[in-house]
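Journal club side-thread
Mid-discussion, someone asked how the predicted structure for our own chain would compare to the paper's figures. Pasting it here so we can look after the session.
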Amino acid sequence: MAATTLLFRDDAYATSCEAKILAITPEGGIILDRTVFYAQGGGQPGDTGALVTSAGERIEIANTVYGADRSQIAHLVGSEAASRLKEGETVTLELDWPRRLKRMRVHTALHLLSVVLPYPVTGGSIGDGDGRLDFDIPDAGLDKADVTEKLNALIARDAAVTERWITDEELDANPGLVKTMSVKPPRGSGRVRLVEIDGIDLQPCGGTHVRRTAEIGSVVITDIEKKGKQNRRVRLSLAD
């Protein structure tokens, strides 16, 4: 079966699109030929929103995940709602944009946090206005106010955030690009997507980001937790 075209990879600001239903899973997942919805992965939740039929019926999408075939994306609407849809039907997707934008702002801020704290990243997650990274840090002594100040200074530089692609071989030749120990860059297509924050950071990432760091707005480091002898969990939140 054909793969789902990931429109959000080319334009994270696209909020809607028309798409054709390729398949319907027993669990109520609608697999489409194209989507603006990000599928859950890499610490970023799947997008929510709605699917609108040609007859005007609006069906809520509770989550977006990868299908059994990782080249396809399933939009979860539940088995009852899915029973009212059929393969080959053309529908319109409408993204919950305010929620996605918060996640984009947090995700980009976490990239900057990995610059302020240049240690191996052992885990992380993105929420609706907050997020966290886990670091392998030899000793303690992190100060919330100091990290907050340094992070906001990077945000204020209003640096451009762009994407480009390199081959698997190029990534293998530059292992220092990979900061995360627990989540490896997606492979299999022969190329890997890099997210670059101009003059600040460059790392593999398949998630969605704002176009410039100033769009993040002010952030606050809300907590620094000790999770083990060398592990520190650093939480941040959008100030608004």
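Post-session note: The chain has five helices and 16 strands.
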